[in-house]
Amino acid sequence: MQEALPVLPAWSKAYLKRLGVQQRATDLEFLKELCRSHLQAFPYENVSKLLYYHTYKKSIVPPPAEYVENASRYDYGGTCYAINANFLALLRELGYSGYLVSLAEDHVAIIITDLLEDGEPLYVDAGAAAPFFQPVRFLTDPDYLSAFGKEAVQLVPDPLSPSRFRFHRMRSHELVSDSWHFSPHEPRELHDFSAAIVRSFAPGATFLSMLRIHLYQLDQKRSVSLKNNSLWIMQENGEEQKFILRSIDELEAAITEEFRLPRLPIREAVTILNTMGVGIFSQEY
Q1: Is the pTM of this model over 0.85?
Q2: How many CB atoms lie within 10 A of CB 92?
Q3: Which domains, from first to last, does the chain contain?
Q4: Counting C-beta atoms within 10 Å of the first and last residue's C-beta, which end of the chain has fewer, N or C?
């Protein structure tokens, strides 16, 4: 007899609707579908962070019900804390077991446990603006590349600490960053990141000093990425176009037409950056 599926709270049902997937048994294939859908439905963006900073004047990661409501109302996704903490909350409601892990105090990801027969952990990450379209078996498949176009990420054993793993970000087959590292055996919960979250909301912090949006659009075999007023469109085959947006009207048009995020309050975010002395149209990347 097939095991009954868990009864989900309203926010979890809304979350799945946003992802465009139906609830089913918690197996590896369903987890792959969830990962792939998340990178397309929830943008990596700091617009929500800027609005939270401006509105509440405090460090906050929205709880799941608020997170999903904001996605529906404003097309929010978030940065790593909001995305991966809430994704983990959904996965737990669906019946998966797992916890958060810290990557050098700059990033948070998810470890899923008790899914594979031998207890092998799986790395899940929807909040890195990286092509993690499926869980990564980093212990048994260290050569696996999570790749899209010119971008790729690989989780490799740390040569100085075999129990740890390094997050290698590559572009055009060249290593561009390896500062993140983690231990899969150091479970964390969101409250363990309180100090890091506070720092991420401090004046001058990375995501209070720029405009950043990234989204995968696999139906078009491309990704779209914005850094201040520079827009990149990368095809799955690696072809890439760059556009410089010269005005707020061009920026809003790009968010609506290219990102397909018409409710994202981009004008408000630019205004907040201006009040903090960040003029995005004077900084090209």
Answers
A1: yes
A2: 15
A3: 204-282 (3.30.2140.10)
A4: N
